């Protein structure tokens, strides 16, 4: 299926645009095959990690506070600082040293330090180790979305939205594991003292998740040979390697391609004769080149600015709400005489199950005419905010759970589209940098959210109202994006 280009020569370096079009056509001719399906699984591990590790801070919060006696938001603050550092380092770095090392190292770091966190003797050690876990986890989304999109045919770009099913499955798995461990191996909320021996549940949870993350890292490194992104290679002038990667993907898929190095060199000669020089930058060092490219034209600058704003707003609202959701459910449950750890974590499992079908609905909705990515993101954001508002009306734990089911369902759609539309809009040669910018925005506000929680009264509905209003506003901003990726080839 032929598709128009999302970005044109007025937006991109014309040499890069021409070469990427040739590469896109070659990948489309190869089609969706074994390599891309394996990549869907291995890149999905990044969505999984991005889901479970930030969520675990809320899942272990109550028993950790009972044992170490600290102000709860400080744990989320430490973890989000790590996520911020990870987004910056791995996102920007993937446009400099390539995607492969970033892709393989992020999960390894998360697994090693996550496993170590289970043995923490005090709060300072736990917070420090979870911050380092965040450094690894924070790089998963900026890198893995770029890795997948760089290698998938344009006809299957919607799968980047469906990729969020891994995010939902991660929520479900960690909730299922946390439910028996926290409920059966933790001090009671009302206990006056809480010793390590009576409170091993959260440690078992960290051991389990750390070990699982290490297994996923080993699968990535040894069971799947990730090839460097051909679009990244074209962007730094390594045409021969880009063509070689395309041929390796074709062989992996048991097919062939007619792409040759001469096809790309002819483009250089064409533009060199026009301009007297080749326009394509052939540098891969840390400079401001990639950032400037994302603001090089009015439409690109508007798009980048809006995406950064949207991610920042949703990052603030969602982190403020999600980081303390188990705590909120427990505290509200106490008010409704329904505050047992068993009920709290049972409800968390129910919420996680609700999110799974949202990924598939999102993948269908983004391909609808007149709706597309922007419409789906705007609608799901509006409904997410609406259910947040509605949750403040709950007069029983069952009502609160019901409203949160609606919130979880639509927020998973919102995140699925948000994680896809940004990489699709950013050109591949600057995609890691663009992903780093938006991820940094959401992580910066993720750091601010616990600070707000330190001084906010979580027993009132004010934080809920603020979160809901912010998410609805972000949905409105989505409609102002100048590019709609539906039906277009990402460049």
From TrEMBL:
InterPro entries named among the record's database cross-references: MFS_dom, MFS_sugar_transport-like, MFS_trans_sf
Keyword field contains Ribonucleoprotein: no
Keyword terms of this UniProt record: Membrane, Transmembrane, Transmembrane helix, Transport
Gene3D superfamilies: MFS general substrate transporter like domains (1.20.1250.20)
Listed GO CC annotations: membrane
Location of the Major facilitator superfamily (MFS) profile domain: 1-486
Subcellular location: Membrane
GO molecular-function term, one example from the UniProt record: transmembrane transporter activity
Domain of life where this protein originates: Eukaryota
Pfam family, one: Sugar_tr
Membrane-spanning ranges: 37-62, 74-93, 105-138, 158-183, 204-223, 306-329, 349-366, 401-421, 433-456, 462-483
UniProt signal peptide: none
Name of the protein described by the UniProt record: MFS general substrate transporter
Organism of this sequence: Roridomyces roridus
């Amino acid at each position: 299926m032929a598709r128009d280009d999302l970005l044109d020569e007025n937006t991109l370096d014309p040499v890069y645009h021409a070469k990427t079009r040739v590469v896109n056509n070659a990948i489309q001719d190869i089609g969706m095959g074994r390599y891309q399906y394996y990549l869907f699984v291995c890149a999905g591990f990044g969505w999984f990690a991005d889901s479970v590790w930030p969520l675990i801070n809320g899942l272990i919060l109550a028993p950790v506070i009972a044992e170490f006696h600290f102000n709860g938001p400080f744990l989320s603050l430490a973890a989000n600082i790590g996520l911020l550092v990870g987004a910056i380092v791995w996102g920007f770095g993937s446009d400099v040293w390539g995607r492969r090392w970033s892709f393989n190292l992020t999960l390894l770091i998360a697994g090693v330090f996550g496993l170590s966190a289970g043995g923490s003797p005090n709060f300072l050690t736990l917070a420090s180790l979870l911050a380092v876990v965040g450094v690894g986890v924070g790089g998963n989304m900026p890198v893995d979305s770029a890795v997948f999109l760089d290698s998938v045919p344009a006809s299957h770009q919607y799968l980047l939205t469906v990729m969020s099913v891994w995010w939902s499955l991660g929520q479900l798995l960690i909730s299922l594991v946390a439910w028996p461990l926290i409920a059966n191996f933790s001090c009671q909320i009302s206990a006056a003292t809480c010793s390590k021996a009576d409170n091993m549940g959260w440690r078992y949870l960290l051991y389990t998740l750390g070990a699982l993350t290490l297994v996923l890292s080993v699968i990535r490194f040894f069971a799947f040979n990730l090839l460097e992104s051909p679009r990244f290679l074209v962007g730094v002038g390594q045409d021969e390697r880009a063509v070689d990667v395309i041929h390796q993907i074709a062989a992996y898929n048991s097919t062939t391609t007619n792409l040759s190095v001469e096809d790309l060199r002819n483009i250089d000669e064409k533009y060199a004769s026009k301009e007297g020089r080749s326009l394509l930058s052939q540098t891969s060092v840390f400079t401001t080149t990639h950032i400037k490219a994302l603001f090089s034209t009015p439409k690109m600058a508007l798009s980048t600015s809006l995406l950064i704003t949207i991610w920042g707003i949703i990052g603030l609202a969602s982190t403020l709400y999600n980081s303390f959701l188990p705590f909120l459910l427990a505290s509200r449950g106490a008010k409704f005489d329904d505050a047992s750890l068993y009920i709290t974590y049972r409800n968390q499992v129910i919420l996680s199950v609700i999110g799974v079908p949202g990924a598939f609905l999102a993948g269908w909705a983004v391909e609808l005419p007149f709706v597309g990515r922007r419409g789906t993101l705007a609608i799901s954001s509006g409904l997410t905010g609406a259910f947040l508002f509605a949750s403040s009306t709950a007069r029983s734990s069952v009502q609160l759970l019901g409203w949160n089911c609606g919130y979880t369902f639509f927020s998973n759609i919102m995140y699925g589209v948000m994680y896809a539309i940004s990489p699709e809009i950013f050109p591949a040669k600057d995609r890691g940098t663009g992903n780093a910018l938006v991820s940094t925005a959401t992580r910066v506000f993720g750091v601010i959210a616990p600070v707000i929680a330190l001084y906010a009264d979580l027993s009132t509905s004010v934080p809920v109202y603020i979160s809901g209003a912010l998410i609805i506003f972000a949905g409105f901003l989505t409609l102002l994006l100048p590019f709609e990726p539906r039906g277009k080839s990402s460049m």
